[in-house]
Amino acid sequence: MKRRTWFGAAAATLAPLALGGCASPAENSRQTTATGLPALMGTGDLGVIIERADGALTFVNTSSCTSIGRVNGLGDLSHASVVFSRDERYAYVFGRDGGLTKVDLLTQAITGRVMQAGNSIGGAINADGTLVAAQNYTPGGVKIFRADSLELLADLPALAKDGKRSRVVGLADLPQNRFIYSLFDTDSICIADCSDISAPRIQTLEGIGRQPYDAMLTPNGRHYIAGLFGEDGLALVDLWDEKPTARRILSGYGRGEKPLPVYKMPHLRGWTVAGQYAYLPAIGRHEVLVVDTHTWREAARIPVAGQPVFVMARPDGRQVWVNFSVPDYDRIQVIDTPSQRVVATLQPGKAVMHMEFAPRGQHVWISCRDSDQVKIYDTHTLREHASISVKAPSGIFFTSRAQRMGL
Amino acid sequence: MKRRTWFGAAAATLAPLALGGCASPAENSRQTTATGLPALMGTGDLGVIIERADGALTFVNTSSCTSIGRVNGLGDLSHASVVFSRDERYAYVFGRDGGLTKVDLLTQAITGRVMQAGNSIGGAINADGTLVAAQNYTPGGVKIFRADSLELLADLPALAKDGKRSRVVGLADLPQNRFIYSLFDTDSICIADCSDISAPRIQTLEGIGRQPYDAMLTPNGRHYIAGLFGEDGLALVDLWDEKPTARRILSGYGRGEKPLPVYKMPHLRGWTVAGQYAYLPAIGRHEVLVVDTHTWREAARIPVAGQPVFVMARPDGRQVWVNFSVPDYDRIQVIDTPSQRVVATLQPGKAVMHMEFAPRGQHVWISCRDSDQVKIYDTHTLREHASISVKAPSGIFFTSRAQRMGL
């Protein structure tokens, strides 16, 4: 079983082909219509980049690694996030100003827009693609819309005991037309069953810990983990339990012990499971926490170059990429997961905001806001592969998200 | 942390919506062209069903759960398999007769076809979508084509020591323009690096065990496992090792001990990893083997209703679905993975050939060849959700495969 032989160029080869990793932009411009858009186009390799300053989206193609269009008029897109219809044709954009905008990636036009709250922080879409949910700060609560028409179907107020609406964070889709979310102001986690949208049933887990500020669903949809701003630890719910309950994990990991000033809240949706371990940003500390998902205990801490914001696994779990809050936000670090060591520090540009991996992981796209650039790296060579000019880019979202839970 | 409260219909609700899980077929027929096809259509919720008797494909939409068209002229489609371009527009169909056919899901037409071998058994596509590889029985070897034009780029002959070509099985894509495959006649596993397609470099691991007959890549691309027909055990390669080698696992699991007659070879590409465990069909035995992926030792055996053919995990890993060879091929069994028990036995129709899950797992599509039906089940309620008439359906393939390794 141990003999290995190498044949250099052992095969009969027949024709040359440039393998640049991305097709030439020209290939994507064939068969265009009067509007300049292709008459027919698959949507599996499309994506959008948020231009926060201009309230605009840049459309991108991840095969050609190029921008292919732009749309504006989406309002305040600071902290905006995006989900996609399951046919990967439409993007639903949740703006900070409470705007929910539906954008057609094929016509590159806005097809619907509602102002659904005063201050919003993201959304989710159910597996069947019929319901879009938005989580809101002002007023608090969750609103649920028809995905096709953006008609409001249900308003889940998320009331605290004093009758005020709580700010909602950490919204994610669950199977069977359910959504899960956390209430910052009431220390609770809710599961809303929207199977009968005329009468949603809401289960509330109370006393989960102080001030859940964001949350994530593991890629298999089993575990929901809420970060706690008000105390040292996190809340964990095992959704495969017949009667899910919340329990505390990682109590005393250091959040409250000697907190550094927190320059930017980490984004927990970026929390990452790779193999047996979850990789979490330690709030206010220059560390990534490694948690064993069998025991939900801390397995290691990896020192990094700043306060982590996004901690994201390459789809195969072999690497974890980390970006940082100000003042260290010109850097990216790459963690090798088998050795749990930082193996590379990159400086892709100024003010790194977000990262998005190609679905099979060969590339990562990195938004460098103050460089007006999106840099595309080869994740195997760690070399720059391409770059795209985008004005003040922030979030990057690819259509392949449509096929995954919790994104 | 333990209090749980239920609010029946606690929310203000605003409008009714039928949540059938699939939109009505009418929704998909709007905006049609003269050909009856939609003028613009996303491709994230499309798929194809192999009609083996007629050499045809039925096109399906997984949102409406309907068939939306048909194309024929694809030759002998017994044992056919399909990969998709990364834009999810094109299907590459590998026929048993050696035909490789490129089909446009938007125009529902064949756009390219080559007879590339006398007897072929499947294929793969690289992450960048530029290279399509076909594995062949007669003559043996692997051929590599340009994905856009189907131009032959390389012919990897896979020679045995006696100079004859070996039959090739278990082909899968690896990162960095590499492919991995097994040679049935030479007891070896090859990794072909096609970064420079004019001079592919082939690494061969020899003496891996007798007669590898199929193989699978774990979803993270780390482990390649070849089933051995000629002996009691399997060959495992850890592709994250700096110098990958093959080692034997599960020696003596029973294949060679008291073999039952084997009515149909299991399909190893269906092998499944769910959480920490892999679920494998035991050749010739009425058992599913459960293997701990940390130690690669047998952890359990689950008795099932027949000789397993496909053993497939729902995308969240909570369930494993199993179909069987003749004479038990009118049944499907569902394994609950936390308890590792069979929790349901279904009889969807006659001669169950294949299963395919919706990408987020809410539905499974099941081809019942001798009933001329594809049945769609809700995987949570285990009830039939919809059914589609298709003539002698076999393989079912959804475009979301484009975004995953090893499929």
Could you please describe the fold and organization of this structure?
The structure is a homodimer of 407-residue chains. Chain A has 407 residues and is mainly β. Helices cover 0% and strands 47% of the residues of chain A. Chain A has strands at 4-7, 12-13, 46-51, 56-61, 66-72, 81-84, 90-94, 99-104, 109-115, 119-125, 131-138, 141-146, 152-156, 168-174, 178-183, 188-193, 201-205, 212-217, 223-228, 234-238, 246-249, 272-274, 277-281, 287-292, 297-303, 308-313, 319-324, 332-336, 341-346, 352-357, 363-368, 373-378, 384-389, 393-398. In chain A, the strands form 8 sheets. In chain A, strands 5-4-3-34 form a 4-stranded antiparallel sheet, with no helix packed on it. A 4-stranded antiparallel sheet of chain A has the order 6-7-8-9, with no helix packed on it. The first copy, chain A, has a 4-stranded antiparallel sheet with strand order 10-11-12-13, with no helix packed on it. Chain A is globular, with a radius of gyration of 22 Å. The interface between A and B is large, with 106 and 105 residues.
